[in-house]
Write a structure and sequence with these properties.
303 residues, alpha/beta, Rossmann fold, 4-stranded parallel β-sheet, globular
Length: 303
């Protein structure tokens, strides 16, 4: 079977199911495990991904206002790859190529009709469903069951480890300018990690917010996890928050409880490493009580 993955999370799922050898192509964002970067990619952004978060936000909104997709598919490359199975998504138009664009290209493949599996997870239970959906398409249903049960077992174990510890309020920031709180599965992970999530709702898309919202709720902990950003890029963007005079007065800032995470590799990808994301949250929320090996790799304290 020839498999084309057009979203980073599905590439990770496919490898975790032991089917990485079936991959013949990827999206431009697929970079884990590292071996996949050697595969040809057939998507690219329609905008300049460099610059500040507000510049990127403006570019994306400008494209969407023109009723265009944020990403472009290399139709010729996709046709040349000749996949039997294409895994894509319909969860977010800003995250990856749209399902309609994929279907449009496939309609031009007159000599073949590849199967399209579209993922649309908004909470943990739907991530389990999507993993099993991919496993079924790959004819490895039992491996899908084992992967999901293993992830759920790890989560249950982690949940028990923090069940009797002090709960503290947490604000998870998914975009810096304009401000956006983390939604979907992140509020769920925060609660499992023993935190009290202040913004965003389980199963709902990430909501925009105002700086005044941070002031009003004054969280114990602020965790920065911008979509598509690693720790270094997030650090560069923090000057945008520090210009607010009230920033220094926030409880989390005064107590040194502001943290930068690699949102791109962990929290933004609804795949197997979300359990690692949960471990990161536990290391942060219950600082110095747990060490799963993610400090300075998946997160660091912001000074």
């Amino acid at each position: 079977m020839r498999v084309l993955s057009l979203i980073a999370s599905s590439t990770e799922i496919i490898h975790s199911l032991g089917c990485g050898d079936k991959l013949i192509g990827r999206s431009h964002e697929c970079d884990y495990p590292p071996s996949v970067v050697n595969l040809p990619y057939c998507t690219e952004p329609r905008f300049n991904v460099g610059g500040s978060s507000v510049e990127i936000d403006n570019r994306v909104k400008s494209i969407l206002q023109k009723a265009l997709s944020v990403y472009r598919i290399d139709e010729q490359k996709l046709i040349e790859l000749n996949p039997d199975l294409i895994v894509t998504q319909s969860q977010c138009d800003v995250c990856a190529v749209s399902l309609s664009d994929v279907e449009n290209v496939v309609s031009k493949m007159l000599d073949k009709n590849p199967q399209i599996v579209s993922l649309e997870p908004n909470q943990l239970s739907e991530i389990w469903d999507d993993i099993q959906k991919v496993a079924s398409a790959l004819n490895v249903k039992e491996k899908g069951d084992l992967l999901v049960s293993g992830m759920r077992k790890r989560i249950n174990t982690l949940s028990k480890m923090v069940s009797n510890l002090e709960k503290r309020t947490v604000a998870c920031i998914e975009w810096i300018e304009p401000l956006m709180a983390a939604g979907n599965w992140v509020p769920e992970l925060v609660e499992i990690a023993g935190g009290i999530n202040l913004f965003g709702f389980k199963g709902k898309h990430s909501p925009w917010m105002e700086f005044e919202d941070l002031i009003d709720k004054d969280p114990d902990i602020i965790i920065i996890m911008p979509c598509g950003y690693d720790i270094n890029k997030s650090r560069e963007e923090m000057e945008t928050l520090k210009i607010f005079p009230e920033w220094i007065n926030l409880k989390a800032v005064q107590n040194g409880e502001v943290y930068l995470t690699d949102g791109n590799q962990y929290f933004n990808r609804p795949g197997p490493r979300l359990v690692d994301s949960l471990e990161i949250l536990i290391e942060i929320i219950h600082l110095d009580k747990f060490d799963f090996g993610h400090k300075d790799i998946g997160w660091e304290k912001f000074d």
